[in-house]
């Protein structure tokens, strides 16, 4: 199918089995995500801007623009990108919930950004002026192309929600400059992928073939070790193996996932099934062997990287928030490219566990890393905010990529819920939303989805507008064995997978899906050494956890797996023992016989942890 | 007791229950360590010097010395220290096995070093010249005092083995400059401790009180967060809590251990039991909760740091070689200060597992990190040598602190084996050695120790010289339940701990100790999540491991703990199953029933692994 360019969404492939719906076609109305979207718009955007103003990250554009500012640049070399990501988030938010003040703020930031752009289109506040390092003198670490990528994505968001304007002009000039500088005779790639997916989206928006060609070139020239050797190895940059030849995602998790997004985009636009297949295989294998149960990717703090297969420590799980955002981005691209609802299931898991957990209730704090096991109660301390300390959502960090990343995802979230195919609509994610769109044949159709998901499993899909036969496809998640569908006054069991209902729908008709959400034990693959002998408890798409504010010693916890977990509120209760722990001068020796009385233990959704105060937590529970 | 200053050893406290013996009083004659000492002298020293010449690290001294060299300094900011450590190692080696060529090379290097010293005594090739950053402008990362510390230790080694000479003059001038710059009115400390222990040893050598005072001041002023905030936290620098108030070793493992060495040295020289007790408690707790079974300390690659209590992942265990050397250094200091043989047992474990494993057979390659679990077979690759890749001992690295550190330890190793107390001699480490010394009352005594240790448990201690009654104390290791002592034609069981034998010894009398070294299963504390459900196999002081050159899939291994391990060569055989592993698209779900046939599996000493080619390995074996 050929997509129109008017779709208000971040990913609009020109072909593929599914057409995404825009944020104007799907509106989140309540339930799990509506308050999070509201907090994002009302608190997070302003909070991030305040910090970036305060720290001088927005001011960098003015300083280099008018030449009168201090020559001391503020922030890390990639701070421009945070400004762009917030502009992208503001643009989606203004599209979702129009606000003249927000609109004006975007314009003001655009002016600041435009003022920093060189005559020839080059744009960076870090490089290129006579008191700075030369342009592109440090491709490995300089992040110049990475930043431009986020600029392009911001311009795409702005243009798709408010029409062409000055930000698009800035972006086109920057993109043109990139194309001129990194033409076919050159070999350079950016240490941090991002420009690839951004150039494709700008090509989709503008119809400019050169942007697509440049993106394809960046994808193809990667993997030949043109970046300098580094102690983390070339895999860190994903410059170790050509994209087509790799078999698994590896190295720096966010770099790897962003590159994969760009490669899928290129593959879709160039009809390159080999490339698409290669990336899908890499992602599938990473999902099968290198992903935490929360959907978090990345095992290593040191290089923010994937571990080897099955190296997935729960304590100090890395699972960067940005990698979660990138996983949703990649899953969405693969869903659109393949039509395989498995990828929607992946996004479901990441969204309801990692993303929902990463952001503070007030939208003003976030996790950078998302551990699965917090052993010690950590009190906040002034100064020296650490990226790796679990249990504390920080208001801001020297590296604050994650908060703007969540912000742009939440502001555009409705575009991830429902797609159109040749015969109707597919509902991929269950959230309260109203859907209004046109089918491929031009018919106007509408749905209203109401659900207690993810806490509950009741999903009601009401036809709001129809006209003749079309299909509604629902996703029955992998875990939903025993699901029941109610349609046409008939109840019938449905197995995990796609349920396609083609009817001559009339407005008011309702489909009900009953997904079983009683809590269940989940065992890890025996190759995951770090959680051997443990079980997790899940409920629907939610991973649960045991949390202690000091009332329990979670190190002493043993769960009795002979008793099935029981539903309790939005969590579960399991039978557990707290065993007596013996200290010794050396922690290796004879096995100790230990005792403890069985007690009920309440488990809550993982995304809720560390909201009532500093606590200890564990997702993986040693079995008795 | 009051020690004389003529002892040829790196640690010579002026008081304490035990007097160390020098490298001239104890000579290693054969067995486990003699070939390693020989390779160290014949290969490692020259190998390290070649690399440092080639990379320009020694040349830095000449360049800044004659002013005619390139202004481009080579190597990292701490590369001076590697030169000093090799000079220290060469000095011990020349003392152990005199060699005019080695002597001349030390003198030549001393001239190079002296040429780079400023008029006022300041010495660094990284800072202070008009094209460099100002002196002490980056205490956190500049390593200036750290480097001076290693210079002082080199000078101590040279002076104790060859008498006072030009290197001592250089060291004294450098130490004087440190005392003048960091006097009582200042607050500075070096980001990397080392100067503390070095200043104390220089004070012991020279009798200069100001060096001791300066060391005490550096110890006392630490822990008040005077170093800049850092994303790893102040604990990284051990600048988070004053030394007297801390309860456990934490942060960067090597920094923490070096600081503890300096604090013990200060405590001993100033009769400060509070300080000594504080450090002993910190080390004891780290040993009980933050140490791998190999004796390796440090769980985290990211900040080369201790983890929280019981966070001891086997895969990607960090356990830096330098932390192993530092653990031996600290254990020796605590042994000398307290007389508690438990610390000798700690050194035993670290030496026979971590240290012996870190160095290549030819002395020309080394591990930086010492993992306990290698999942994938890694082939060597040119360029970009990574610090964190397990299974490959590298000839050299950009950060090559470990090889010179092992070199100085091995060259002075005999000084760690035997001590003198008020009534006689104590044998702490079992190795083939000849001991000749004088007791406190001036009597000449001698021992000959011959043993199959660590592979075997037979220890023969023959009196070589005597004269009147004195005592011989033997250490029965913690694991040696069922040990037997044979003395005076009598066999008797001895329990773990100290065996003190006071006799009117005559030359030729022999004591035999039979330590049981049949292999045994060892279980981890249940709080160590990373190895839950696993056992290790040990034999005497040796940790064993399963290694595969591709013949076994160690991920599929399950050990039958119902069958005791049996002795086989210097390793063991256990009953094991290799289970069938099922791949799936998501590694969490139902527990899988898996099968496999029981087969015998050979285990070898950990220190032997990765010597026959790239391999996979695991110390912790999942139990069936």
UniProtKB/TrEMBL annotation, chains A, B:
<dbReference type="InterPro" id="IPR012878">
    <property type="entry name" value="Beta-AFase-like_GH127_cat"/>
</dbReference>
<dbReference type="Pfam" id="PF07944">
    <property type="entry name" value="Beta-AFase-like_GH127_cat"/>
</dbReference>
<feature type="domain" description="Non-reducing end beta-L-arabinofuranosidase-like GH127 middle">
    <location>
        <begin position="425"/>
        <end position="516"/>
    </location>
</feature>
<dbReference type="InterPro" id="IPR049046">
    <property type="entry name" value="Beta-AFase-like_GH127_middle"/>
</dbReference>
<dbReference type="Pfam" id="PF20736">
    <property type="entry name" value="Glyco_hydro127M"/>
</dbReference>
<feature type="region of interest" description="Disordered">
    <location>
        <begin position="1"/>
        <end position="23"/>
    </location>
</feature>
<feature type="domain" description="Non-reducing end beta-L-arabinofuranosidase-like GH127 C-terminal">
    <location>
        <begin position="520"/>
        <end position="622"/>
    </location>
</feature>
<protein>
    <submittedName>
        <fullName>Glycoside hydrolase family 127 protein</fullName>
    </submittedName>
</protein>
<dbReference type="InterPro" id="IPR049174">
    <property type="entry name" value="Beta-AFase-like"/>
</dbReference>
<dbReference type="InterPro" id="IPR008928">
    <property type="entry name" value="6-hairpin_glycosidase_sf"/>
</dbReference>
<keyword id="KW-0378">Hydrolase</keyword>
<dbReference type="GO" id="GO:0005975">
    <property type="term" value="P:carbohydrate metabolic process"/>
</dbReference>
<dbReference type="Pfam" id="PF20737">
    <property type="entry name" value="Glyco_hydro127C"/>
</dbReference>
<feature type="domain" description="Non-reducing end beta-L-arabinofuranosidase-like GH127 catalytic">
    <location>
        <begin position="25"/>
        <end position="414"/>
    </location>
</feature>
<dbReference type="GO" id="GO:0016787">
    <property type="term" value="F:hydrolase activity"/>
</dbReference>
<dbReference type="InterPro" id="IPR049049">
    <property type="entry name" value="Beta-AFase-like_GH127_C"/>
</dbReference>
């Amino acid at each position: 199918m050929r997509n129109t360019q008017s779709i208000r969404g971040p990913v609009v492939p020109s072909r593929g089995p599914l057409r995404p719906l825009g944020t104007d076609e799907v509106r989140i109305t309540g339930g799990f995500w509506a308050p999070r979207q509201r907090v994002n718009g009302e608190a997070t955007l302003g909070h991030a801007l305040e910090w970036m103003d305060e720290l001088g990250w927005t001011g960098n554009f003015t300083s280099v623009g008018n030449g009168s500012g201090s020559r001391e640049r503020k922030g890390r070399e990639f701070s421009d990108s945070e400004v762009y990501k917030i502009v992208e988030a503001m643009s989606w938010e203004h599209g979702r919930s129009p606000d003249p003040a927000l609109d004006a703020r975007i314009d003001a930031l655009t002016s600041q950004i435009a003022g920093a752009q060189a005559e020839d289109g080059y744009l960076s506040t870090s490089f290129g002026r006579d008191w700075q390092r030369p342009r592109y003198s440090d491709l490995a670490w300089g992040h110049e192309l990475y930043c431009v990528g986020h600029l392009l994505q911001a311009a795409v968001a702005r243009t798709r929600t408010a029409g062409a304007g000055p930000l698009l002009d800035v972006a086109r000039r920057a993109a043109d400059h990139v194309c001129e500088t990194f033409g076919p005779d050159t070999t350079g790639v950016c240490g941090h992928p991002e420009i690839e997916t951004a150039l494709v989206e700008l090509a989709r928006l503008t119809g400019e073939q050169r942007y697509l060609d440049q993106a394809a070139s960046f994808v193809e020239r990667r993997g030949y070790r043109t970046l300098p050797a580094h102690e983390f190895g070339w895999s860190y940059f994903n410059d170790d193996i050509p994209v087509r030849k790799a078999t698994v995602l590896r190295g720096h998790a966010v770099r790897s996932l962003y590159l994969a997004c760009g490669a899928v985009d290129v593959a879709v636009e160039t009809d390159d099934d080999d490339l698409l297949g290669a990336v899908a295989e890499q992602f599938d294998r990473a999902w099968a062997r290198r992903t935490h149960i929360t959907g978090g990717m990345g095992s290593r703090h040191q290089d923010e990287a994937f571990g080897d297969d099955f190296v997935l420590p729960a304590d100090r799980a890395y699972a960067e928030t940005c990698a979660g955002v990138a996983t949703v981005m990649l899953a969405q691209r693969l869903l659109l490219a393949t039509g395989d609802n498995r990828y929607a299931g992946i996004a479901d898991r990441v969204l309801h566990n990692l993303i929902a957990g990463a952001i503070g209730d007030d939208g003003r704090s976030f996790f950078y890393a998302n551990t699965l096991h917090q052993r010690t109660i950590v009190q906040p301390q002034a100064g020296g905010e650490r990226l790796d300390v679990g249990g504390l959502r920080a208001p801001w960090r020297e590296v604050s990529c994650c908060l703007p990343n969540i912000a742009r995802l939440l502001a555009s979230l409705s575009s991830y819920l429902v797609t159109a195919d040749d015969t109707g609509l597919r509902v991929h994610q269950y959230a309260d939303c109203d859907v209004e769109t046109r089918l491929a044949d031009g018919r106007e159709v509408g749905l209203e989805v109401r659900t207690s998901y993810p806490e509950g499993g009741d999903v009601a899909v009401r036809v709001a507008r129809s006209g003749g036969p079309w299909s509604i496809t629902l996703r029955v998640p992998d875990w939903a064995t025993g699901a029941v569908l109610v349609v046409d006054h008939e109840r019938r069991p449905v197995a995990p997978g796609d349920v396609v209902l083609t009817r001559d729908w009339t407005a008011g008709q309702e489909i009900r899906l009953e997904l079983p959400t009683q809590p269940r034990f989940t065992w890890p693959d025996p190759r995951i050494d770090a959680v051997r002998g443990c079980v997790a408890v899940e409920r629907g798409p939610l991973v649960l956890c045991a949390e202690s504010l000091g009332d329990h010693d979670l190190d002493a916890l043993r769960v009795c797996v002979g008793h099935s977990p029981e539903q309790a509120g939005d969590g579960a209760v399991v039978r557990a023992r707290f065993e007596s722990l013996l200290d010794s001068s050396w922690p290796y020796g004879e096995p100790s016989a230990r005792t403890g009385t069985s007690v009920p233990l309440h488990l809550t959704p993982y995304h809720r942890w560390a909201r009532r105060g500093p606590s200890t937590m564990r997702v993986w529970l040693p079995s008795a």
